[in-house]
Design a protein that fits this description.
The structure holds 2 protein chains of 2 kinds. By secondary structure, chain A is α+β, with helices and mostly antiparallel strands. Chain A is built from 18 helices and 19 strands. In chain A, strand 18 and strand 19 form a beta hairpin. Chain A is globular. Chain A starts with 14 loop residues before the first helix and ends in a 14-residue tail after the last strand. Chain B is of the alpha+beta class. Chain B has 2 domains: about 110 residues, Ubiquitin-like (UB roll) (Roll); about 130 residues, Alpha-helical ferredoxin (Fumarate Reductase Iron-sulfur Protein, Chain B, domain 2). Chain B contains 8 helices and 7 strands, in the order ββαβββββααααααα. In chain B, strands 2-1-5-3-4 form a 5-stranded mixed beta sheet. The radius of gyration of chain B is 20 Å and the shape is elongated. Classes of the chains: A alpha+beta, B alpha+beta. Chains A and B meet through helix 3, helix 5, helix 6, helix 12 and helix 13 of A and helix 1, helix 2 and helix 3 of B.
Chain lengths: ~675, ~250
């Protein structure tokens, strides 16, 4: 099947408006006869479910947690971008569009990104109207902060808990519709398959995680807002339950999976401390507004710090290497995430890592504390030369801005970041790849939509900070509710979809067979045993830096591990009870397939772009020596993989990316 | 560290349940409490025993999914953290640790340490929202200036993670801190004023129907709240409720 991205014709700035003016609509009376399933209740799924219900559709929403409010969007810290230009610093829809395409290293779809930038301002208006308590200035207006990869201040925030506040906003909108009976909410339900009838997505099979009951649910369309697949690495900043299963089942039913190798390794996370670790914790990128990243210049100081004989704060300024400021003077500590992560890895690989494992760099707030302290002393008419006072005042400012993050750091690491620099290292955070969708956010399966992190379209090969929240809410509040109407306008006479059909019966049977296999297999290793091993392969060979040999090895190692898993996995208990091991087994089985496709995609893409860094594709000389080298002539396409059984049999389809409004350039942050 | 764990085991909602003793060894002080339970569960799975069921998800203290009543305190002995952020350095080698589910009539046990907190959701369905449809035509965000002090207080109230520690810590199993936080968030903002009367009456009515108890001002909820939600929110809710009742 040829890929049709269905991008509307016309100038980029008119596409979305023209599109909305010409699509088919469903009248309010008919909406009452149409059912929509939304899987996942994060920013994308939650906002979509609420908005579709407001429009009058009958929504059934599903989440695996005990409440929609727990979805992992809640953990997003730093902020949400919007082209409001409240600061008057030259921001505009075009500039947000441009920054996002450039930040994504020219591997995203122009028309989708422009639409994203266009609706970004509406998101802020909508959230404020819902009562989301964004940070404000003393005049009562909204405050902004800066994020990486851009030269304007367009990020709206609520301390270090922006995702929480936005999600609770979407949750409140859902609650209103649940109260009205327009959303039927299924908590603690996991989607285990998509059901297709006559080629169209018409329902899902779920498992009730408390009782084990396998259920059939039908609808006229199915929307997946099920998040990313970073947990294929075992250790990531994702929640423990975050998984690829819904997206992967969709893939197996015909939805192409795009750019699986585009993964964001976030530069500022708390370093791994030991084998017991179950997850990694992010320290928001917003900290790079005020924190300066460094390692010692000299190896003797690295050793002294590791040995504990030298305190980092006592090392003289001249003996520190602020390597981001040195290498990228224009953007300094606010270079995009992929660039910052690789730079940290480069220093640590060279032996300058500052903790016992050699995999940590400093993020230092001492200069910011000084700067804010002096400023506050000046404003209050106090003595700017009183060092203790300045420090105290500066620490208060930092506490107001990032208090919850500093507290989190202190609880985990047991060190006080107000007085000693934080130690950070890159960790898997976000997946830009995902289910392929057209301009309508529809997958290659008619009637099956995919929104938020679970799809692929807006962030190219690298996502800019504070853009994930923007995309999730844009898709759910402002894009999908229009595009899905155009599709559903053909279903006004269809009537309710029966679940008593062969298609539902077959899908349910397959699900039951897999579950029965797990609970009756007499293996010797726990699910986590396999998941951890998969994570190690992924991190070592498909991580921040990739080469042909490593990727080839990873493909065969993952395949072998998968075969071993199906022989030796052990799942205690039965299906008819709360059984977390059983739920995990199904998820890890899918990760073991996705992981191989991920490595295969990385092997196919013989260029470096964004978060995908190939050691055989770097600038060899000139000012950009050592930086990632893109190959636009041969790789300016989206890799969309069609399922054919084993991951090794997956067929590649290419969506050629066309750039009419932005010139493709070497991405320079120097 | 080597520890003895006394854990509440209960097969399902209708099972009676009892405390069972377990031993874990080689626990690192850098582990989180839940990572310590992961070690126990790995051990149980390898011995063909049923692992201990407990709720958890984000493991960074924000989703509100983890619970646990540890040595008689919701989220254990540390302050200002959820169980997932409680670290084993808070305990000593040789300690015996008692682990129970959050107990309240409105939080029935599902299995082992997992409870059903859907009563919290139902209270929110009754009024925890501002009625504004998504349209793209709401007024510009900066057309509603909010006094910074009020905005900050609304934010502080809105940081509630809905974990239920307040209910579990209260001798009356009262949910006033949880409900007060949401009522306060909206009461402090101009956007929330239009529906203030109905909101507080409906949410309090639902709260009572769910079987939560009343507040007798002992303040245990505030002490155990991992997000430091202030008792002021209960006072504010009482004021809102009184105002609304007089209007009603």
């Amino acid at each position: 099947m040829a890929l049709d991205s269905k991008i509307p014709k016309g100038p980029i700035k008119d596409k979305w408006t023209d599109y909305k003016n010409h699509i088919d609509l469903v009248n309010p009376a008919n909406k009452r006869n149409i059912d929509v399933i939304v899987v996942g209740t994060g920013l994308a799924g939650g906002s979509a479910a609420a908005t579709l219900a407001e429009l009058g559709y009958n929504v059934k929403a599903f989440c695996f947690q005990d409440s929609p409010r727990r979805a992992h969007s809640i953990a997003a810290q730093g902020g949400i971008n919007a082209a409001k230009n409240y600061q008057g610093d030259g921001d505009s829809t075009y500039r947000l569009f441009y920054d996002t395409v450039k930040g994504g290293d020219y591997r995203s779809r122009e028309a989708n990104v422009y639409r994203l930038a266009e609706v970004s301002a509406n998101i802020i208006d909508q959230c404020v109207a819902q009562g989301v308590p964004f940070a404000r200035e003393y005049g009562g207006l909204l405050d902004n902060r800066s994020f990486g990869g851009v030269l304007v201040s367009r990020t709206f925030y609520a301390a270090g808990q922006t995702g929480q506040q936005l999600l609770l906003g979407a949750y409140s909108a859902m609650n209103r519709q649940i109260g009205r009976g327009k959303i039927k909410m299924y908590n603690r339900h996991e989607m285990l398959d998509v059901v297709k009838v006559d080629g169209k997505a018409r329902g899902i099979i779920t498992r009730n995680l408390i009782t084990g009951e396998i259920e059939r649910h039908s609808a006229h369309a199915v929307v997946l807002g099920t998040g990313g697949y970073g947990n294929v690495f075992f250790l990531s900043t994702n929640a423990m339950g975050s998984n690829v299963t819904a997206a992967w089942k969709a893939h197996k039913r015909g939805a192409y999976f795009a750019n699986p190798c585009y993964t964001q390794i976030h530069p500022t996370c708390i370093p791994v401390s030991g084998d017991h670790q179950s997850k990694l914790t992010l320290m928001s990128e917003s900290l790079r507004n005020d924190g300066r990243i460094w390692v010692p210049k000299h190896m003797k100081d690295v050793e002294a710090i590791k040995a504990g004989t030298l305190k980092p704060k006592d090392l003289a300024e001249d003996d520190r290497d602020y390597y981001l400021e040195r290498r990228y003077p224009a953007f300094g500590n606010l270079v995009p995430r992929d660039v910052a992560s690789r730079a940290a890895k480069e220093r640590c690989d060279a032996g300058f890592g500052v903790n016992a494992t050699g995999e940590a760099v400093f993020l230092d707030f001492a200069s910011a504390i000084q700067r804010y302290g002096k400023e506050t002393a000046h404003v209050k008419g106090l003595d700017e030369n009183d060092a203790a006072l300045v420090k105290k005042l500066g620490q208060e400012v930092i506490k107001n801005k990032y208090g919850n993050l500093f507290q989190m750091y202190e609880k985990i690491v047991d060190q006080d970041p107000y007085n000693t620099p934080m130690m950070i290292y890159p960790a898997v955070h976000y997946t830009m790849g995902g289910v392929w969708v057209d301009y309508n956010l529809m997958t290659t399966v008619p009637g099956l939509y995919c929104i938020g992190e679970a799809n692929f379209s807006d962030h190219g090969a690298n996502r800019l900070g504070a853009s994930a929240l923007m995309q999730g809410l844009a898709d759910g509040y402002f894009v999908l509710p229009y595009t899905i109407g155009d599709y559903l306008s053909n279903d006004i006479r269809t009537g309710p979809i029966s679940t008593e059909t062969k298609e539902f019966e077959d899908a349910e049977k397959e699900v039951r067979e897999k579950i029965n296999f797990f609970v009756s297999n007499e293996g010797q290793h726990s699910v986590d045993y396999f998941h951890k091993r998969l994570g190690k392969i992924m991190w070592n060979k498909v991580g921040m830096s990739r080469n042909v040999q490593g990727l080839t090895e990873a493909i065969s190692e993952i395949k072998a591990l998968r075969e071993q898993f199906w022989k030796e996995v052990k799942v205690p208990g039965t299906n008819e009870e709360y059984n977390e091991e059983l739920a995990k087994a199904g998820r890890v089985a899918d990760f073991l397939e996705l992981g191989e496709l991920f490595a295969k995609d990385a092997l196919n893409r013989e260029e470096s772009c964004g978060g995908h860094f190939r050691e055989d594709s770097v600038e060899l000389d000139g000012e950009q020596k050592g930086e990632a080298l893109r190959d636009d002539e041969n790789f300016a396409y989206v890799s969309a993989w069609e399922y054919k059984g084993e991951p090794s049999d997956a067929v590649l389809h290419k969506e050629q990316l066309e750039f009419n409004d932005i010139e493709l350039k070497q991405r320079s942050y120097k | 560290m080597n520890l003895t764990l006394k854990i509440w085991r209960q097969k399902n909602a209708s099972d009676k349940g009892s405390m069972v003793d377990y031993k874990v060894s080689d626990i690192s002080p850098d582990m989180s409490f839940l990572e310590m339970l992961d070690v126990l569960n790995e051990q149980l799975v390898n011995n063909n025993e049923s692992p201990v069921a407990f709720d958890h998800d984000c493991r960074e203290g924000i989703c509100g999914m983890c619970s646990l009543y540890i040595n008689g305190e919701a989220h254990g002995p540390d302050r200002g953290v959820t169980t997932c952020q409680l670290h084993m350095r808070m305990f000593k080698d040789g300690d015996t640790i008692t682990i129970e589910p959050f107990r309240a009539t409105a939080f029935p046990v599902v299995k082992d340490l997992i409870v059903d907190r859907s009563s919290f959701d139902r209270v929110q369905h009754a009024g925890g929202f501002i009625s504004v449809n998504t349209s793209g035509n709401t007024i510009d965000a900066n057309a509603i200036p909010v006094n910074k002090h009020d905005a900050d207080d609304a934010f502080s109230a809105a940081t509630c993670i809905g974990c239920g520690a307040c209910v579990a810590s209260c001798k009356n199993s009262s949910a006033m801190l949880f409900v007060g936080a949401k009522v306060s968030q909206f009461a402090l903002l101009p956007q929330g004023k239009v529906e203030a009367t109905d909101r507080v009456l409906n949410m309090v009515k639902q709260m009572d129907e769910e079987g939560f108890g009343n507040c007798t001002n002992t303040g245990a909820c505030e002490v155990e709240c991992p997000k430091g939600i202030s008792l002021e929110n209960i006072a504010r809710m009482n004021r809102e409720y009184l105002k609304a009742s007089l209007k009603g």
